[in-house]
Design goal:
Strand order of the largest sheet: 1-2
Distance between the termini: 76 Å
Radius of gyration: 20 Å
Shape: globular
Number of helices: 7
């Protein structure tokens, strides 16, 4: 009897929604947040491939989420997938108009270019990053 109640409880969980086209899985905000949290754990444990897999599921539905795309770009760089990281960074640059994001995205781009084997571009981007970083450093009070 208890086993039947347990089965009933387990089968009560609603299934993820499938779009009318039948090809896209629609996830809720809570499910997306769980995927992101799990991906951060995988990344922190050095498992960037698993992180990418989880983030790609979440990014499919929430491709406008700047924070999610940033961590995806970082994980792709760690995994050595420079071209994929560059594509993600291109999406990020279209979405993220915050001035404070410019330098971090430039640094990520230089690493992605290096991973993609585009060393001359990577060096130039890093030099631009370094010069901008030096010019925007906070001035200490005397």
């Amino acid at each position: 009897m208890a086993e039947r109640e347990e089965r009933k409880h387990l089968t009560h969980t609603p299934a993820p929604h499938v779009s009318k086209a039948g090809d896209a899985l629609v996830i809720s905000t809570n499910e997306r947040d769980l995927l992101c949290a799990l991906s951060y754990v995988h990344l922190a444990c050095g498992q960037s491939a698993q992180c990418i897999a989880l983030l790609r599921i979440a990014a499919h539905e929430h491709s406008q989420n700047v924070d999610l795309l940033r961590i995806l770009a970082y994980a792709l760089i760690l995994e050595g997938r420079g071209d994929d990281a560059l594509a993600t960074l291109d999406r990020l640059e279209k979405l993220d108009h915050q001035p404070s994001s410019r330098l971090p995205l430039m640094l990520l781009r230089s690493h992605a270019l290096r991973r993609a084997g585009r060393m001359a571009e990577a060096r130039a981007t890093f030099k631009s990053y370094a010069s901008l970083r030096g010019s925007t450093a906070p001035i200490e009070e005397q």
